[in-house]
Write a structure and sequence with these properties.
The protein is mainly alpha-helical and about 550 residues long. The chain is built from 20 helices and no strands. It starts with about 20 loop residues before the first helix and ends in a 94-residue tail after the last helix. It is found in: Nucleus. Its main location: nucleus.
Amino acid sequence: MHCTAYAGGGRQKNKPRGKCSSNVALRSVGAALAPLLESHKDAYQVILDGVKGGAKEKRLAAQFIPKFFKHFPELADSAINAQLDLCEDEDVSIRRQAIKELPQFATGDNLPRVADILTQLLQSDDSAEFNLVNNALLSIFKMDAKGTLGGLFSQILQGEDIVRERAIKFLSTKLKTLPEEVLTKEVEEFILAESKKVLEDVTGEEFVLFMKILSGLKSLQTVSGRQQLVELVAEQADLEQTFNPSDPDCVDRLLQCTRQAVPLFSKNVHSTKFVTYFCEHVLPNLSALTTPVEGLDIQLEVLKLLAEMSSFCGDMEKLESNLKKLFDKLLEYMPLPPEEAENGENAGGEEPKLQFSYVECLLYSFHQLGRKLPDFLTAKLNAEKLKDFKIRLQYFARGLQVYIRQLRLALQGKTGEALKTEENKIKVVALKITNNINVLIKDLFHIPPSYKSTVTLSWKPVQKADANQKRTSEDTTSSSPPKKASAGPKRDARQIYNPPSGKYSSNLGSFSYEQRGGFRGGRGRGWGGRGNRSRGRIY
């Protein structure tokens, strides 16, 4: 590990002023310094020169330099630089000793500098060293949280990629372990202000981590705090720009941002801006969407996000227009019954496939937004369109009843372990989907159509507590240096349900979308590469 100069003060190698002949000499100097500190500046310089000696001299220097550091402020720069020489020594035991003692240098104006140095040392791949650096950072956090954060954010904004990555990881895993007396309101405001600077140029993975950091701040748990976070996400999503469905990076960024926004929405923090964007720009281009994530049903993913957001949509400027777009998309997945031949059989041969997963999302979204314009079906549609819609609903409902009976029969009497088989898991989810659609269709068959029924989306857990209760995400901390996340499954399995005999799909593939690379292309240096960061370390 190679250290270079700390920004704001050139670091020069210490010139020996008298070679330490032995380990004993250093011990003698250390003992002599205690009673006569002020008059022994030259003796302290001898200790500093000990970093040029052998292994034993270096170990003693690593202890004595910080021990007497506070008594020689005029030699502060030389002392810190000498300790840094030891932090990059070839002998791992010397490095560890030097790193362990670094917090003793964190006094007054030196603290941000020490925090900056420790942040750079996070790049160590030695687990013991890495743990020492983590502990040292946590200890100076308790001395001066704002000063420590200054050093961390300095490296996040200007450091090498490996340092930036590990500094962000440190914040995402360690901040939540700090007591309230450390994370004061002033400190949290500083974190938010610095995070906004970082968010001007981030990868997708970095964005997810920063949202976890900010979502965990006590000052942002309020309605106004959540609203601030939603606005941050909306800015990152770039909802003002033209949506390009054929650009996988554009689609990727929108979905990653929307996923971060969804847990923030509530009856007081509205999703209107996102729902409007989805209705106006995404739904009309649903079939043209592309994604860099292999095996992902991007259309279903979009519809699920829209369904989740629709519950918290506030007053919408172009409600009728957007409801019409949603209605038109719903019709695409609700086929008319096939024409019958004279003998009563299907004239076309094959019956239309009913895509229940898509219909659940679209019907739920329409049901939620329809509450805001309850006369849409009766006053805004002409008689022919309303008649056509009811025919489609009736045909879909007939098919639903058949499948619901089949599913209930297949699951009858099964409990416990029997329901945990892959086949039965599919059937349980399928039953939730079909029951939800059935309830919503019954509402729309009322005269006039009703929007009073409540269902829980099939992929959401049934919550006994308040539906608007804050959702928290778990994060694990590691005592070893962070490693690249594997491409394995991270999110809950997205389940697609279709009818049997070629109409059902048993493929319940899961995907890791949230943790993928980044928001490539796009703003500034791009959400994936973040441009070229070859600045080098700045101890």
